[in-house]
C-alpha cells in the first residue's frame, strides 16, 4: 500500500455548519451557483458572453459583486473564508463531548437503589476526553449516517470503558488511588460497591444499545452488539488484561506478547467504537473493514503513547498515578525498546492509520485524522 500522508491537508479542512440562521454553501456549490445564469439572475445567459469576458472562480469578489446581491456576496465571502480556516479539532471535540456528557447524564439517572447509581455516575461523569464515543459518532457520520443513530452505541462504549477503569483500579488489579484527578471509585464507595458499579455499567451498556437505538435495521443492531461483546470478552479486553497480569515481572515477555496485550486490552474497545459507528451508520463491508484497520492502529498507538507518558510525566500532569507500570514491573514499549524507538513506532502507527482514510470524503475524514494526531501527540 502506498504511503499517503494526509496530515498536511487537514489544515485546509473546515466544518460547514448553520450560522446566523442562514445555511452556508460548500465551496463547490458556492462557485457553481455564483456563475449559474438562472440562480444568480444574470441579465444574459453566460453562454452568450465571450469566454474571455466571462467571470471565473479566480475573479475577485469586487468584480463579481456587480452581478450579485449584497446578501449573495456576503455568503460567498463567508464560504471562501471558511475554506481558508483550518479544521478546529478542539471545538469539534468540545461540541461532541458535550453531547455525549448530556446523553450520559440522561441515560444513567440518579434513582433507587441510590448508592449504586451514585457510584456509577461518579466514574461515568468524572470527565475524560470521550475519545471512544466521539470515534463512534464520527465514524457513523463518515459513512453517511446521522449522529443520533450511533449515540446509544457511543454511550455503551463509554459505559464499558468506565467499567474497565473501575475494575482496573481495584486492589486486586492495579490497586490505584487516583483516576482522572479524583479518588478512584473503590476509595469513595468501597470495593464491594465499586465491583457492582462496574457490573451494572456493563449490563446497562448492552441494554441501552438494544432498547434506545432507532432508525437502524435489527440486523445491524445485532451485528453491532456482537462486535461490542467480542471486543470485551476473551478475544478482547479480558484476554489482554489476563496476559498483562501474567506478564508482570516476567523476563521472557517480548514485543509480540506486548503487542497482544495492547491490541486486546486497549485497541479492541477503540476498534469496536469505530466499527459500531460504521455499522450503525450504514457503511459497506469495505468501509467497515477500512475503519477497523484505522481503529486498530490508533488503538495500539493510544497504548504506546500511554506507556511513554507513564514514564515521562508526573501524576499531576497525567491525572492518575504516574510510574505505576514501572513499579509493577510491567512490560512496556519504553522498557523493551526505549523511549525514542517507542516514539518512532507511534509515528509509524499514526501514518498507517491515516492511510486507511485516503478513500473517504476529506471533509468528513478530517475529525478522524485530527483525532489520530491528537492521540499521537497527547500529553495526558
UniProtKB/TrEMBL annotation:
The pathway that the record names for this protein is: Isoprenoid biosynthesis; geranyl diphosphate biosynthesis; geranyl diphosphate from dimethylallyl diphosphate and isopentenyl diphosphate: step 1/1; Isoprenoid biosynthesis; farnesyl diphosphate biosynthesis; farnesyl diphosphate from geranyl diphosphate and isopentenyl diphosphate: step 1/1; Isoprenoid biosynthesis; geranylgeranyl diphosphate biosynthesis; geranylgeranyl diphosphate from farnesyl diphosphate and isopentenyl diphosphate: step 1/1
Which cofactor names does the annotation list? Mg(2+)
GO CC, one annotated term: cytoplasm
Gene Ontology terms describing biological process: carotenoid biosynthetic process
The record's listing under Pfam families reads: polyprenyl_synt
Q: What is its EC number?
A: 2.5.1.1
Q: Which residues form the signal peptide?
A: none
* Class of the enzyme per the UniProt entry, highest EC level: transferase
Gene Ontology molecular functions = dimethylallyltranstransferase activity; geranylgeranyl diphosphate synthase activity; metal ion binding
InterPro entries, per database record: Isoprenoid_synthase_dom_sf, Polyprenyl_synt, Polyprenyl_synt_CS, Prenyl_diphosphate_synthase
User: Which UniProt keywords are listed?
Assistant: Carotenoid biosynthesis, Isoprene biosynthesis, Magnesium, Metal-binding, Transferase
- Coiled-coil blocks: none
Q: Record's family?
A: Belongs to the FPP/GGPP synthase family.
Protein name, per record: Geranyl diphosphate synthase
Species for this entry: Morus alba
Amino acid at each position: 500500500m502506498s504511503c499517503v500522508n494526509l496530515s498536511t491537508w487537514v489544515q485546509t479542512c473546515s466544518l460547514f455548519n448553520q450560522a446566523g440562521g442562514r445555511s452556508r454553501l460548500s465551496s463547490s456549490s458556492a462557485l457553481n451557483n455564483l456563475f449559474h445564469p438562472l440562480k444568480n439572475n444574470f441579465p444574459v445567459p453566460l453562454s452568450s458572453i465571450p469566454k474571455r469576458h466571462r467571470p471565473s472562480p479566480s475573479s475577485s469578489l469586487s468584480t463579481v459583486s456587480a452581478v450579485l446581491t449584497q446578501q449573495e456576496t456576503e455568503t460567498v465571502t463567508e464560504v471562501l473564508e471558511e475554506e481558508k480556516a483550518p479544521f478546529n479539532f478542539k471545538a469539534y471535540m468540545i461540541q461532541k463531548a458535550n453531547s455525549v456528557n448530556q446523553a450520559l447524564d440522561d441515560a444513567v439517572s440518579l434513582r433507587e437503589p441510590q448508592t449504586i447509581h451514585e457510584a456509577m455516575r461518579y466514574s461515568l461523569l468524572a470527565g475524560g476526553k470521550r475519545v471512544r464515543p466521539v470515534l463512534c459518532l464520527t465514524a457513523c457520520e463518515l459513512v453517511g449516517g446521522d449522529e443520533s443513530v450511533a449515540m446509544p452505541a457511543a454511550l455503551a462504549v463509554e459505559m464499558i470503558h468506565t467499567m474497565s477503569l473501575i475494575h482496573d483500579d481495584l486492589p486486586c488489579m492495579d490497586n490505584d488511588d487516583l483516576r482522572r484527578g479524583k479518588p478512584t471509585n473503590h476509595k469513595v464507595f468501597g470495593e464491594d460497591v465499586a465491583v457492582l458499579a462496574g457490573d451494572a455499567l456493563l449490563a446497562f451498556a448492552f441494554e441501552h444499545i438494544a432498547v434506545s437505538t432507532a432508525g437502524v435495521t435489527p440486523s445491524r443492531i445485532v451485528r453491532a452488539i456482537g462486535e461490542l461483546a467480542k471486543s470485551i470478552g476473551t478475544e478482547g479486553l479480558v484476554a489482554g488484561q489476563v496476559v498483562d497480569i501474567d506478564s508482570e515481572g516476567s523476563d521472557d515477555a517480548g514485543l509480540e506478547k506486548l503487542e497482544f496485550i495492547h491490541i486486546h486490552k486497549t485497541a479492541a474497545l477503540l476498534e469496536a467504537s469505530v466499527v459500531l459507528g460504521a455499522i450503525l451508520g450504514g457503511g459497506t463491508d469495505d468501509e467497515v473493514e477500512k475503519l477497523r484497520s484505522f481503529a486498530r492502529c490508533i488503538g495500539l498507538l493510544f497504548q504506546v503513547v500511554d506507556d511513554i507518558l507513564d514514564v515521562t510525566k508526573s501524576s499531576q500532569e497525567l491525572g492518575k498515578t504516574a510510574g505505576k507500570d514501572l513499579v509493577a514491573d510491567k512490560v512496556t514499549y519504553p522498557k523493551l525498546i526505549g523511549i525514542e524507538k517507542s516514539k518512532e513506532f507511534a509515528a509509524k502507527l499514526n501514518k498507517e492509520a491515516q492511510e486507511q482514510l485516503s478513500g473517504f470524503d476529506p471533509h468528513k475524514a478530517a475529525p478522524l485524522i485530527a483525532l489520530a494526531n491528537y492521540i499521537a501527540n497527547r500529553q495526558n
